[in-house]
Design a protein that fits this description.
heterotrimer; A alpha+beta (270); B mainly alpha (269); C alpha+beta (640); B: 269 residues; mainly alpha; 3 helical TM bundles of succinate and fumarate reductases; two-stranded antiparallel sheet; 4% strand; elongated; disordered C terminus; C: 640 residues; alpha+beta; Flavocytochrome C3, Chain A, domain 1; Methane Monooxygenase Hydroxylase, Chain G, domain 1; five-stranded parallel β-sheet; five-stranded antiparallel β-sheet
Chain lengths: 270, 269, 640
């Protein structure tokens, strides 16, 4: 296999990249040749090479978000040929390799598009809205130092494993980018479910889901159409079952919050 | 926040309303279909049934109003959610969009919904209000005198000798028009497709769906929608093709025999 | 000459931290809100410190260059986190964790710091579990543990292969909570480009907004740096692409001492480089060595042949041959160096000749493919994704890569640098791992510093600062620092060069790897000290940075970082040259035992080397802090 590996030929593709100088500037697609590409290059390494070429001829390189390049930080965020993160299942953009493409291919590269992810430059968008949702309730309120012994709160293994599935979200925003409605339901549902599945998360369970959904709505994300494009592009393959779970949690919390007696109320209302 | 306000204002609230009203309407169209299939029995059956419904009076109006409210809420939620979602997509569209897991039914919900809504309006104008084809509307037809007692599960609907509207003839005459029938068939076809995603979706929205039985749910929904479509196809289909002929002696039978132009096959003795 | 007072408390080792906590000064609760603290960095140490300090009532400003603190590279840690919980009842204790960590560090860390780390390790697990971190559990619902290198007990807590991610998300959730409550002002996309000193105390920073290019001044009563390690000085490493040393390097240039920069850790099992374009090396878990056998061809001329065509008799299972008792499980540094020797002999495999085989054929025939798949399936998948090779059929190719730096800014027991008011946490400081870090200890240290050390020790400094005495951000010192940053930026953009920044970073990486990588020699280091200044000159003359300063400009960001890496690389080599012994991650070929093990020189080098900046173009000053081992005996670290 190594022998076969070493005879694989380099090839050339055309990149059709969205270029936009700034948030309020017009954008357009620009074609760039990418020549002598090794099939073992990652997609982002191919962009590095193209950018070095652009720099040398005095053009501005293509701005793209990236960091860990091992599929865990959630920074990289290109839509490649109409699919957020590009060809493959359960991968981030940085895990796309050029062997997924062939000689002469035209590769269309766009940013993650959504109103709640305003564009900063070229392929880079602002995903601060996710942080805002997290700040609204994506936590368990425990002061440092106030925690009981870790083994004093047993968590059934099944619940812990399921919570881990939900917790594996890398916050990349591909779910939003893939959704025709730019809905953030999968992202929010993953966080709500992770904390809602654990005994530690119960005291704030209702408050959390109500607050996070409210912030999600305010941030300008769209609504879920139950098409599950989100879970299909998720680099961590987080299931949309968590969305069903959040819907249930949310409705239950909504009803409960309206029928729970209020502490300190002196009478039962008129 | 007040419960009702929350339901009408938040994204999941609106979707819940949509799911709930959708569920009501799935129930209604199912019952409606079962009622209509009585057309294939003696005229007493459907005429007695229709008479019974008419006789409910204020209760009928309450049900109608409730259904109308459901339709209104369903449509309102659809419009509101769609507008929000359109806005959420942002200023630039993707140059390429690849579908990965969305079902065909789910991708045309708005289109199928609009056609079904248009059909619903026509359908009410046709069979409930009598505006669309006043000539064959039940009030314009000679009344029907019940030949036997009509009972449903032992419950009396109309008594022998009662004079009631001739819904039986109205249906036969209405569907004798191929344009009406084809529109009807297309509309129920789209409604079936609409329900295919709708049923799957409502379980998700209410939170009763999970990977463990989502496959089964999809299959059940598919079977239901096919059965629903076939049931609805049967009425205009059978009338149009002449497989079903009006019972001898009914007004529809006389009328169709008198004007063979309306439909040649329907006048066979 | 910097004053290096470690402020180690007196008394018995096990009581030092308790005693210190009761003796240091406190800030009363009503006064806490009058103090502002700047925290730079949003990884484990930065997020946990920001959250905890805000919970205490301090006003915190958190600066991260990422678009969210959740993206910091702590997220990529796989294996686990150590804690002396003894949940397995296998004889673990605080003392045992302390001892393992100290020995693992080849006796080049401070006893008192390491002991404190072991003490608070138990609190970390409690804290994280309470935050909802989904640790692996047993069927009874209690926490699961596994064992890790360098320890004889099972004390490692983990969350699948994503422990770093889950711990970081836990700290990030605590931070998010405080941001939501207004206790922390979060500045994302904000890169610290200079440290501001007022009357010798750290009182502020200069920040560039990476999206708008705006340069702003921020003042505070104290500054905390939690900005991670500097492994990207080697260009290729397991670090994130953006990980950089700019914050600590600019603090160094303001007078903070940089300690032991030559202590770099090299991980033996990474996927080898495939070409010049490579930007990143991916770690494959060390656990693979439990079942894989490492070999290279015996004959040089076989190196390029397909592995299947090389008969058993022509294969050299060199780890089994050289280290018969440990075999393929020899420690990280030992097996890394052995791999490099094989490649130096020309027997390295793969296109570049820089790789060795990790072969599972034996394990597959012994256990069957399904069993191997169950144990390592996800790693085989990652390998396949990157190399397109099926490791069930053909051996994996692996090679060592840089993945952690033990050195960092010098700090005392309070985690304060030699600049008053400047605190340094996590990988950015030098404190706890000595010359080598054990697996599953980095997460422990980052969280210990952020959750359980700095919240106490910062009070000791702040109590001496009058509330409200913090300078305004428009003083002369701030303006001068801002000017400094502006002119650096302008210089880059105005430069009439021809080569992109990456060109220089690659060349620096090559020099560093060649002369200051796994094995170092006097001659090699001296050569590097010639080459690096030349590279710096060339970089300054010939780097090309397109675009403007007023928008997102990734070339500009990189230019600043690489400029700092070039300077830091020089210091790293200088430190390696002057430390004439081998210890942990620092291996000097001249100083080894006959069996190839590190030969420490405790008589002359049992000290911390803390380098002090003397101005541009001048040789930095090598200060030392002696390491006094009061409670443990320094012994030879042998794994034979």
């Amino acid at each position: 296999m190594v022998a076969e590996h070493s005879v694989k030929k380099n090839f050339s593709v055309t990149l059709r990249v969205w270029r936009q100088a700034g948030p309020n500037q017009p954008g357009k697609f620009v074609d760039y040749p990418a020549t002598d590409i090794s099939p073992d290059m990652s997609f982002l390494e191919m962009l590095d090479v193209v950018n070095d070429g652009l720099t040398k001829i005095g053009d501005e390189p293509i701005a793209f978000a990236h960091d860990c390049r091992e599929g865990i930080c959630g920074t990289c965020s290109c839509t490649i040929n109409g699919k957020p993160h590009g060809p493959g299942k359960g991968i981030a953009t940085c895990q796309v390799y050029m062997r997924s493409f062939g000689e002469g291919d035209v590769i269309v590269v766009e940013p993650f598009r959504a109103r709640a992810f305003p564009l900063i430059k070229d392929l880079v968008t602002n995903r601060e809205a996710f942080d805002k949702i997290q700040q609204a309730g994506g936590f368990i309120s425990v002061r440092t130092g106030a925690a009981p012994d870790a083994n004093s709160i047993p968590v059934p293994k099944e619940d812990a494993d399921l919570a881990m599935d939900a917790a594996s979200c890398i916050g990349c925003g591909a779910c939003v980018a893939a959704c025709k409605n730019a809905s953030a339901m999968l992202f929010v549902a993953a966080k709500v479910s992770q904390l809602g599945l654990m005994p530690q998360g119960q005291p704030e369970r209702d408050k959390r889901v109500l607050a996070m959904v409210k912030t999600m709505d305010e941030a300008g994300f769209g609504n879920c159409s139950n098409q599950y494009e989100c879970s299909a592009v998720c680099p961590k393959l987080i299931t949309h079952d968590f969305i069903a779970r959040m819907n249930r949690d949310y409705l239950a919390a909504l009803f409960r919050s309206n029928f729970k007696p209020v502490s300190g109320a002196s009478d039962g209302g008129a | 926040m007040n419960l009702l306000v929350s339901l009408f204002k938040t994204s999941i609230g609106k979707k819940f309303l949509m799911a709930l009203t959708g569920l009501v309407m799935v129930g209604f169209v199912t019952g409606h279909l079962v009622g209509n299939l009585q057309i294939f029995f003696q005229p007493d059956r459907i005429n007695g049934y229709a008479h019974f419904l008419q006789a409910l009076g204020p209760v009928l109006w309450a049900i109608r109003l409730f259904l109308l409210v459901c339709v209104a809420v369903h449509v309102w939620a659809a419009v509101a959610l769609t507008l929000e979602s359109r806005a959420a997509r942002g200023p630039e569209a993707y140059a390429i969009k690849k579908w990965l897991s969305a079902t065909v039914a789910s991708r045309y919900m708005r289109l199928s919904g609009i056609v079904v809504l248009a059909f619903l309006i026509y359908h009410l104008a046709h069979f409930t209000l009598g505006v669309a084809q006043p000539g064959t509307f039940k009030t314009a037809l000679p009344e029907w005198k019940m030949l036997e007692d009509a009972r449903e599960f032992g419950f009396p609907l109309a008594a022998k000798g009662d004079v009631v509207h001739d819904v039986y003839s109205m249906v036969f005459l209405g569907f004798a028009n191929p344009v009406v029938s084809i529109f009807y068939i297309i509309a129920v076809g789209l409604l079936s497709v609409h329900m295919l995603h709708g049923i799957d979706s409502l379980f998700q929205t209410i939170g009763w769906r999970s990977a463990k039985w989502s496959c089964l749910l999809r299959k059940v929904a598919l079977v239901y929608c096919i059965v629903y479509f076939l049931g609805n196809l049967a009425i205009p289909g059978a009338i149009l093709t002449g497989i079903a002929k009006p019972a001898v002696g009914t007004y529809a039978a006389q009328k169709l025999a008198a004007s063979p132009a309306a439909t040649s096959s329907a006048v066979q003795p | 000459m910097a004053k290096l007072d470690s402020k180690t408390p007196s008394g018995p080792l096990a009581d030092k931290w308790q005693k210190h906590k009761t003796e240091i000064k406190l800030v009363n609760p009503a006064n806490k809100r009058k103090y502002e603290i700047i925290v730079v960095g949003g990884g484990l140490a930065g997020s946990s410190a920001s959250a905890t300090l805000a919970e205490l009532g301090y006003k915190v400003k958190n600066f991260v260059f990422h678009d969210s603190p959740r993206r910091a590279h702590s997220i990529a840690a796989q294996g686990g986190i150590n804690a002396a919980k003894n949940y397995q009842n296998d004889g673990d204790s605080v003392h045992r964790l302390f001892y393992d960590t100290l020995k693992g560090g080849d006796y080049r860390a401070r006893e008192s710091n390491v002991h404190r780390l072991a003490e608070v390790s138990v609190n970390i697990i409690d804290q994280c579990a309470a935050q909802g971190v989904p640790f692996a559990r047993e069927y009874g619902g209690l926490l699961a543990n596994r064992s890790f290198g360098g320890a004889q007990v099972s004390r490692t807590f983990y969350a699948r292969g994503q422990t770093g991610q889950q711990l970081l998300l836990g700290a990030y959730s605590a931070l998010s909570r405080m941001v939501g409550q207004g206790g922390v002002e979060l500045h994302t996309n904000s890169e610290m480009l200079d440290l501001v000193l007022v009357d010798g105390h750290a009182k502020g920073i200069i920040v560039r907004d990476l999206n708008t290019g705006a340069i702003t001044r921020h003042s505070a009563d104290a500054v905390i740096l939690a900005t991670g390690g500097y492994g990207n000085v080697f260009n290729l490493s397991t670090y994130a692409r953006q990980s950089n040393a700019t914050a600590i390097w600019r603090a160094y240039k303001r007078g903070a001492c940089l300690a032991n920069p030559c202590y770099t850790q090299i991980h033996p099992t990474c996927i080898p480089v495939s070409g010049d374009y490579q930007s990143k090396l991916t770690l494959m878990s060390e656990s693979l060595r439990n079942d894989g056998r490492i070999w290279v061809p015996k004959k040089k001329e076989d190196a390029k042949k397909p592995p299947a065509s090389i008969p058993e008799a022509d294969r050299d299972y060199y780890l089994e041959r050289i280290y018969p008792s440990f075999g393929n499980l020899a420690p990280r540094d030992v097996s890394s160096r052995a791999a490099m020797r094989m490649c130096d002999e020309g027997r390295g495999v793969g296109e570049t000749g820089l790789g060795v085989y990790l072969d599972f054929a034996d394990a597959i025939s012994r256990l069957g493919e399904p069993a191997v798949r169950e144990r390592y399936g996800n790693l085989f998948d990652i390998y396949h994704e990157i190399t397109a090779e099926n490791a069930y059929k053909t051996p994996m190719r692996i090679f060592p890569a840089v993945h952690y730096t033990m050195g960092g800014l010098w700090v005392d027991y309070n985690l304060m640098s030699n600049i008053p008011g400047l605190f340094v946490l996590g990988e950015a400081n030098f404190s706890d791992h000595g010359a080598n870090r054990l697996g599953a200890s980095a997460l422990m240290q980052g969280l210990a510093d952020g959750y359980f050390v700095i919240p106490y020790t910062i009070g000791d400094y702040l109590a001496g600062q009058k509330p409200g005495s913090r300078p305004k951000a428009d003083g002369a010192e701030f303006k001068q620092a801002e000017q400094n940053v502006q002119s650096m930026t302008e210089k880059f953009l105005a430069n009439k060069g021809t080569e992109p920044v990456s060109h220089f970073h690659k060349r620096l990486g090559k020099i560093m790897w060649e002369h200051c990588g796994m094995a170092r020699t006097k001659a090699g280091l001296e050569q590097a000290l010639q080459k690096i200044p030349a590279l710096r000159e060339e970089f300054q003359a010939n780097v090309k940075v397109p675009g403007s300063a007023a928008t997102l400009n990734q070339s500009l960001e990189q230019a600043g970082r690489v400029a700092d890496f070039i300077e830091l690389g020089e210091l790293l080599c200088r430190d390696a040259l002057t430390r004439e012994e081998s210890c942990g991650g620092h291996f000097r070929e001249e100083y080894q035992h006959p069996d190839g093990e590190c030969k420490r020189d405790d008589e002359h080098y049992a000290h911390v080397a803390a380098w002090e900046y003397q101005g541009a173009g001048k040789t930095p000053l090598r200060n030392t802090e002696p390491l006094n081992y009061e409670f443990t005996k320094m012994s030879v670290r042998s794994y034979k």
